[in-house]
Amino acid sequence: MNYFFILLITAFFSFIFTYPTIILAKKFKIVTDKKKRKHPAHTHVGIIPRGGGLPIFLSFLISCLFFLSVNKIILGILIASFFLIIIGLLDDYFDLSPYFRFIANLLIATLVVAFGLGIPYISNPLGDVIRLDQWKINFYFFGNHQILILADFLAIIWLAWLANMVNWSKGVDGQLPGFVAITAFF
Fold first, then answer.
1. Other C-beta atoms within 10 Å of 107: how many?
2. CA distances in angstroms from 174 to 25, 81, 87, 93, 141, listed in the order given
3. Contact present, 116 and 76 (Cβ < 8 Å)
């Protein structure tokens, strides 16, 4: 499948879902209003709708369902993404505590790892690889399972760190879209 075509379809869905998200954000008062909430990083004038992750999530979900064969790891990523968007929307409405969001991100990262996503090795700049899947705990719970102690721990920390790094970079208006666009390009 042509990846450029998939990118265009995903961007199209994101574009289509953006306008209804703006309308719903204004209707449910999920907005940034400088008159009600003073913050030095908000430089926009007027009332700015929040919840911009929703159209991105919906386009991501639709593209995954159309263009990927859903396996256990993809399902885990989709479920975790759903929980992340719920936390994000609740944060946009209620301004949740950063400690609560951090703990929620750790739990959501643990969920993804429980579905099988992990970091079994990392590249070694001096050659070969560094194995992280050597220490294992095997157990039986509706089938044989194993916990890769170091690999799973590092995957949880990495996922939670990335989620928080992206979330915390939205402090200044316009910084998050630029940051994500540059990262996506590379």
1. 14
2. 18, 23, 21, 19, 46
3. yes
Looking up tokens 């505590």 gives: 97
Beta bridge partners of 180: none
Q: Are 113 and 152 in contact (CB under 8 A)?
A: yes
Residue 117, helix vs strand vs coil: coil
Residues sharing a CB contact under 8 Å with residue 147, sequence separation 6 or more, in sequence order? 136, 137, 139
Beta bridge partners of 70: none
Least confident of 72-81, 125-134, 164-173: 164-173
Find the helix or strand (DSSP H, E) in which 131 lies.
strand 129-131
Length of the chain: 186
- What pTM was computed for the model? 0.86
